[in-house]
Each structure stands twice: as structure tokens, then as C-alpha cells.
Amino acid sequence: MLASEVTELLRGCERVLDGTLGGGGHSAALLHAGVRTVIGVDRDPDALVAASARLHDFTEAGRFSAVESNYAAIDELPSLEGMSFDGILLDLGISSHQIDDEQRGFTFRLGARLDMRMGGENDVAADAAGILNHEDEATLTNIFKDYGDEPKAGRLAREIVRRRGNRPFETSDDLVGAIRAVLGARSGSGDFARLFQAVRIAVNDELSGLVRALPALRDRLTPGGTLVVIAYHSGEDRIVKNAFRDWSSACVCPPKHPFCTCRGVALGTTVTRRARIASEDEVIQNPRARSARLRAWRSAP
Predict the structure, then answer these.
(1) Is 176 a residue whose pLDDT tops 90?
(2) d(CA 139, CA 131)
(3) pLDDT average, residue stretch 243-269
(4) CATH topology of domain 126-203
(5) CB 268 within 8 A of CB 297
(6) CATH architecture type of domain 3-97+206-299
């Protein structure tokens, strides 16, 4: 998504961390644009295999390497200890191969299993079926309300609890049926996509992980380095926007504070005054780009 915008912002970098490697599309674009070295991180072993095959020639040339991990755990990776980067990229969406593989459970196609774990079957997190079958009504309500902006979140949570009492949730059909029972027969793909995304965010702890990751990634930038984040969910975009705003402010003391007790200096500047969005041509070619929002921040020189 937004490959030309990413390349424009990071093409002058010597070393880039692609924190969400996926199929390697952004890494390939950056390497072809002249970035000397790219290190890709992804917690999905299938993504690492696909990207490594795609970027084999760059690996042979010593310009690309891949690490299996969650970008939120960068400070726990011995191979990246003490390493800094001129550019860091996060593309917070899920990759096409994850959506297209029904066994991964990211789709609401008929009969798809309810998994949704970014790390695949070896991921220790509870899968989507586990959350739907075992979380209490209050927790499910919060998931659909906070992550899915669903006005009928409470009713949907109650319907799920009622249905799982008769038969556990196992496939996409089970969740689609519960959504239709609450939102009505006219509910469609937009509703399913939004509410399946809410469950996916809960499964992978995506918003909390992003909150933890952003300062850690910021501190890995070289002076004048650029952090680029592409978000697809309003909650993600809000976290990124607020972080970039705070880092770009000289004072972040609470309102009406009698005198400044914070750092007193901006850590850098926000490069994108407003979020950049995909062009009409890109949306036509890839409808998933419609919700993409790109923001960039540059550390102080």
C-alpha cells in the first residue's frame, strides 16, 4: 500500500527497518530505489518464507535480511541489539496471502476457520474462536465497541454468548450468523469486515502493541531518521497521530500546569501535516487501500 509515498520518504536512507515485512513489497521497492540495506521483521513464518524468496538476490548481495519477531518486541532481539536505522516502516495491515489463505482465518468467506493469529499456528495467543468461545460478555462488548465502533456491541456480545452455549464458534459462518442476527439481514461485507477486524485486533493485541512499540522504534532512529506508519483502523491512526504530535511539541505538560516540568524540547517534526491516502488509481487496483492512512515523523538532527 502507498508504495510510492513510502519510497519518496525513505529513498535516501542507508539502513531501513521494515517492521511489518509481509510479502516484501515495500522492502523490494526500497531496495530498488537505492536504500543500501533493509532488515525485515515479521512474526508470520509464512511471510518470511515468501519475502525471502522474493528478495533472494538482495539477500545474496548482503542488502537484505529477515528476522522472525513482532515489531513491538524489537528491544528483545539480540540480532538487532544496539542497531539504529535511518528509516523505519510499519504497515499495520494484513497481507494478501494472509487474507487469501482460508486456513489463517482472516477472511469471512464461508467455512473459513476462526484463527486470525498473525504468528500462525505456532503463535501462543488465543485464536479468534478461543476469544469468541471463552471471553465474557463485557469483554466481547468492549472488543466490538472499541475496535469495531459497533453501536450494538452489547447485543452482539449477548448473541455470541447465547449461541456458544448451544455450539462453539468454529468457522466464519458462525460469527457472520451472529452479526446478521443482531444487525439484520441487510448487513453486508462492510459490517463483516469491520467486526472481523475488531476480533483480529483483540487476538493480536494490536493497539496495545503499537502503543508500546512507537517510542521504542523512535529511539532506534538515527538523528534525522524517519518513521513511517500506515494504519488501516481509526484507533491505530489516532495512536500514531497523537504520538507524532506529542513528539513534535516542545512542551507536553498538562494544561494549566504552572511551569514546564517536561523535556522542554521537541524530539523531532511531523513530516505529514495530514495523513496521506491512496490515490483513486491505487484504490481501483486494490480496494483494500481505501482505508490506508500514512503518517511520517522525522527525529531531530
Answers:
(1) yes
(2) 9
(3) 83
(4) DNA polymerase; domain 1 (1.10.150)
(5) yes
(6) 3-Layer(aba) Sandwich (3.40)
